[in-house]
Every structure is written in structure tokens, then in C-alpha cells.
């Protein structure tokens, strides 16, 4: 079974009991953020440059402008981050999904600042308002307990202000924070605007 059918671009290779799939350069550069963001936090092998150098690690984030890939490796001395420039990427091979411990380690690399939250009723009211505001601006968002998740790479914690956003992707972080700064005090209920493109 593929780690995610939504991320599958290119051929699949079977080695033992594991399915491997590759995003070739043409697919990687032109598939867009929807695919890239779904590949975040998976272990990948990136082949780059004319010499076809291989780089392995957990895909932490992808820069949607340059298409550069940030890979994290965990060792005895902690975590190290390597950036592979987007123009050099020849192909990206997804090897596996993270286990819960690895997922938590990846998320903890950029912990949000601690903030005091409002009471439960006000927290629910604010969370619902932020979710509606982002949806009305075509930003993919879903609730995860008391948190909001944006495109699988950004987290908004109570009390859901711009400074309560955390993400390793600076571009998406900036765009969501700008939206929250202009959010009205009350966001009316209403349908999400038609269209398939998102606001990121």
C-alpha cells in the first residue's frame, strides 16, 4: 500500500515488503504545494545534480517558491538539517512514513511559544472563527482537538492569534499570520467560496 495515493507520482518499486515510489523532477517541480505538503514528515531519498548525489532524511519542509527540500537526520548528537536546492532535484523517492516517536521529534524541532489560553467556551469560539476565516480564504484547515492544522505543516494553538502559529515553512507561516492579523472580530457563517485552488 502506498504511503499516500495523493503523493504518488511516477513508478513504484517493490523491495522486500516495502513499497517505494518516486516523484521525478518534472512531477516534483510542477505538481505544486498540494503534493509537496502531503510528503512532509516522510523519509525520502533525494537524487540531485548531474552527479546524481543521494541525500536521505525525513522531509521537514519544501519551499514552494524555490522547490528546495529540507531534510532532517537524527543522530547521537541530535538533529541536523540539510537543504537540497530545488533546481538540482532529479527525483525524490519516498521510503516510509514516520512512527509516532519520529513524528513527535519532527514536530518538536520548532516548538511554539507557551501561551496562556482562554476559558474553554471562548477557546472554542475563537477556534471556530479562525477556522471559518481560513476556509473562506481557501486555506486548507482542519481541527485536531484544541489545535488547528493547516495543510499538514502549520499548527495554530490557543488562543489562535498570529503569534500562536508554528511551522517550519516560513512562507506559509507568514501568509497565515497575515490572514489572522486582518481577521474580523466576528466571522459570519457562510459557504466556502467555490474553486479548488487554496489560499496558500
TrEMBL record:
**Protein name per the record:** Gem nuclear organelle associated protein 6
| UniProt GO cellular component terms | nucleus; SMN complex
User: Which residue numbers delimit the AD domain?
Assistant: 93-188
Source organism's superkingdom? Answer: Eukaryota
Q: Set out the biological process GO terms recorded for this chain's protein.
A: spliceosomal complex assembly; spliceosomal snRNP assembly
Whose protein is this, by species?
A: Poecilia latipinna (sailfin molly)
Q: Where is this region: Disordered?
A: 97-124
Pfam families documented for this protein: Gemin6, Gemin6_C
Amino acid at each position: 500500500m502506498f504511503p499516500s495515493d495523493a503523493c504518488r507520482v511516477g513508478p513504484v518499486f517493490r523491495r522486500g515488503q516495502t513499497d517505494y515510489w518516486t516523484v521525478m523532477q518534472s512531477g516534483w517541480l510542477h505538481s505544486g504545494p498540494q503534493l509537496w505538503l502531503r510528503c512532509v514528515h516522510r523519509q525520502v531519498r533525494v537524487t540531485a545534480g548531474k552527479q546524481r548525489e543521494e541525500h536521505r532524511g525525513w522531509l521537514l519542509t519544501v519551499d514552494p517558491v524555490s522547490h528546495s527540500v529540507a531534510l532532517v537526520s537524527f543522530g547521537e548528537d541530535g538533529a541536523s538539517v540539510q537543504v537540497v536546492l530545488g533546481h538540482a532535484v532529479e527525483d525524490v523517492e519516498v521510503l516510509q512514513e514516520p512512527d509516532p516517536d519520529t513524528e513527535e521529534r519532527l514536530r518538536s524541532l520548532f516548538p511554539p511559544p507557551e501561551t496562556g489560553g482562554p476559558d474553554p467556551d471562548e477557546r472554542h469560539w475563537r477556534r471556530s472563527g479562525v477556522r471559518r476565516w481560513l476556509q473562506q480564504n481557501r486555506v486548507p484547515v482542519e481541527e485536531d482537538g484544541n489545535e488547528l492544522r493547516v495543510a499538514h505543516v502549520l499548527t495554530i494553538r490557543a488562543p489562535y492569534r498570529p503569534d500562536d502559529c508554528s511551522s517550519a515553512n516560513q512562507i506559509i507561516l507568514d501568509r497565515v499570520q497575515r490572514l489572522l492579523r486582518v481577521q474580523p472580530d466576528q466571522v459570519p457563517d457562510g459557504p466556502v467560496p467555490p474553486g479548488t485552488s487554496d489560499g496558500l
